[in-house]
Amino acid sequence: MLASPNILASVTNKLFKSSALKGGSKRKTCDEDNDENATPDSIDNQRAYYDHGRTFARLGGVFSDIFDIIKAGVKYETIEVDESAALVETISREVQIWDALCQVIPNFRIEMITIAHQPKLQRNVAASIHAGINNVRAEDTSGLKTRILSYLNFDTTMSLQPTIILGNKCDRGWIHPVTAALLCPLEYPATQETFEAIQEGQLSVTAEQYPRFLYPHDRIYNPNDIASGLLEGHVMIRVAKHIFQGPSAALQRLGYHRGKRGNASIIGLKTMTPHTIAYIAIQTRYALTSSTSWSMVDTHFDNEAFFWDIVDMFEFGDLDHILDLYDHQVFGISIGVPTAITMEEAGKISDATRLKAQRAAKRARHTQESEPSSQASSFDNAPTIQVEDGAVDDRGNGSGVLPTAA
Description:
Residues 23-44, 358-406 are annotated as: Disordered. It holds the Pfam family DUF6698. By secondary structure, the protein is mainly alpha-helical. It is built from 18 helices and four strands. The longest helix is centred in the first third of the chain and has 29 residues, at 119-147. The chain starts with a helix and ends with a strand. Residues 25-46, 339-346 and 374-406 have low confidence and may be disordered.
């Protein structure tokens, strides 16, 4: 496929902007300086890949090799239809991430297909996106490093005992009784003996053993009902509010955010998704550990496997109530209440419509009274507006029919 000059120009422009952002430059491109009539959509279409990477970190995942995703996505898009189903079985995860990327980045699908035979250019695009992902992940990690200490106790009036040094992770993880209890698999007793056994390697902790912070603080392990309370832990919910509405919102009322827009609004997130909840879990776990560097695997605990395990929990829809819970906590959306619809959409007559009809009736009546009686008959056949049972006219008569002016 020959690369379209317009698409190539779009790709290189986004890469140029990405380089400027990564280098800390605030200099505008020529397009930005000259296009005074740019619409929001056109501006979004030319946002730097780096910026899109920052958005994708919280919506899609922080463990993806973006270049591999691009290659897999282009292969999936250009393969024969009868072969695509078999391909998806082997690269289903990559296709899932590819679709998420294409939703975040306008025109990304056609851009990557167009430059499919220019792997160097594709690598540059992938590197820019990945830089944005790493940047926002590091920002969230840094922000939680100290703030999370005030989220750990269910009762926030209680202080941590012993005290944890702000900005220092060496006394977290399996060393501190509070962080150790939250990291400990629910199936293990949260005791000092357990924590020491884990530290000494006598007990292993893997991504398939769900940590206590995923559950409510008073949850008791029941091997026959693992799902009860899963992902409802108070630390998880507070971290979700911290990341998507701002640190000041973490311990505040439902849907609270102070001053400027929160990250959710900035990236256009209106409801939580399996990926955003998995991202919250990963950030929470890292903040609780004594690890000082981000890694795919922490001893025996595979962070990437943990992330995707949480995403996959929502596959069959039986955990949709968890999404409702987070929407309720983060955005203040009432649980079980559908999105608001207008009166017209509901097939009902609003008070505004009633008022118009009543005022029209009143005007018609006054006109009729002021004109000669010979003309009064002209209103005998005035059209009417049928309203719901129990409607009243402007004099309080419950006729259910309101006359309007002819």
